[in-house]
Amino acid sequence: MRRPTFDLDVLRTFVTGVDFNSFAKAADRLGRSTSAVSAQLKRLEEQIGTPILAKSGRGLVLTPTGETLLSHARRLLEMNDGIFQTLHESQTAGTIRLGLQEDFGEHFLSDLLRRFVHAYPKVNLEVRIARNAELLALIQSAGLDLALTWDTGPLSPYATRLGETQMHWIGARDRPLLTTLDDSPLPLIMFDAPCVLRSAATQALDAEQIPWRIALTSPSVGGIWAAVAAGLGLTLRTRIGLPSHLTVVSGLPPMPSLGYVLHSSDDDPTPAAQQLAAMIKTSLQEQAFHFTITK
């Protein structure tokens, strides 16, 4: 048996009339005559096979079936309008400037680019990989549209905290663990200050009275991973982008989680920028799930 198909135009009339609490106002809003709107509602009730509106005094109220239909109709119209908006935006040329803290940039940038370019082939995506302070300054000066950073304290005006991830002491998998049994300072591989993970590491070691020294600083996460792999010291980072030849090291002070935040330079970003933000959120959720099942 062939199932009937709802006419979205009729559903839009129905929803608009309920929203305005007047089908006469709905007719004016939609550019139709009141008789045309009445005919649409009559056809809708005939299609469903039961009344969706009932008289109440001088007005109309929804029947239980009408209430159910209203909920479904809203979702159908939202989906319909969202599809058209996405298709329209995907054909609209423009530029989105995205900033990523290096940990995020190295790990899921390629997949994020592929998915976004597939959905918005005419939108130019400019990506800047930098540290927190530079990204936040660019957001404040509108030099970036979106930026994904670590949560280092006060948020920018249009920011959303997306989640958090555990900080870990990281060392080389195939080398003996570095210890402080001989009272020699623990060698650390870190970014230059200021750095939120560097501060967290040194403060935790100081609290436990564990001596430390900065054995090497690097301007990039890749440099940190290389120095740790060479056995030059330990570092403190998250598991995001952790290479397979490195591992979490035990025996040092336990560390808390570190939040990550998505900043926007505008309180009303373009639909394409909103979609990119949604993709970033989804990627991070998938990343968090991956760490949950693999650690």
TrEMBL record:
InterPro entries in the record: LTTR (IPR050176), LysR_HTH_N (IPR000847), LysR_subst-bd (IPR005119), WH-like_DNA-bd_sf (IPR036388), WH_DNA-bd_sf (IPR036390)
Signal peptide region: none
Q: Which SUPFAM superfamilies match?
A: Periplasmic binding protein-like II, Winged helix' DNA-binding domain
| HTH lysR-type domain location | 6-63
PROSITE patterns for the chain? HTH_LYSR (PS50931)
Pfam families per record: HTH_1 (PF00126), LysR_substrate (PF03466)
Keywords, in A-Z order? DNA-binding, Transcription, Transcription regulation
Q: Does the record bear ATP-binding in its keywords?
A: no
By sequence similarity, the record places it as follows: Belongs to the LysR transcriptional regulatory family.
Q: What is the protein name for this chain?
A: LysR family transcriptional regulator
